[in-house]
Amino acid sequence: MADLVAVTKSDGDLIVPARRIQAEYVSALKLLRKRSQVWKPKVIRISARSGEGISEMWDKMKDFQDLMLASGELTAKRRKQQKVWMWNLIQESVLEHFRTHPTVREQIPLLEQKVLIGALSPGLAADFLLKAFKSRD
């Protein structure tokens, strides 16, 4: 989900297609669920060659930051993201620990192959691997 969409290369022969693309993005964004009480996603055309839209893009970015900070939405969003990031890191670490467990690592290739050929269900293969992991003592 974008807060600001920049349609690039809006210069020369590409101005007309860029305007069309901008209109299509504006229409598409109207169909999406509202994510903010204070900000509506914007679509602007920019050109590095001519400089068109660059300062407007910067202004929109600043407007977004100012509104989101003032409303508290940005801070709340960052807090939620940090919680998600914490759990993602835990999942990655636990999965890595699981996969590198000697007994599990030894059984993975055979069980994966059995699942691939349909000789074993994914649930049963997972159960075997989890039992191997739990009986590590």
UniProtKB/TrEMBL annotation:
Gene symbol of the encoding locus: MMAA
Classification via InterPro entries: GTPase_ArgK, P-loop_NTPase
Any GO MF annotation of the entry: GTPase activity
Protein name: MMAA protein
Any Pfam family the entry gives: MeaB
Gene3D superfamilies recorded: 1.10.287.130, P-loop containing nucleotide triphosphate hydrolases
Species per Swiss-Prot/TrEMBL record: Homo sapiens (Human)
Entry's family note: Belongs to the SIMIBI class G3E GTPase family. ArgK/MeaB subfamily.
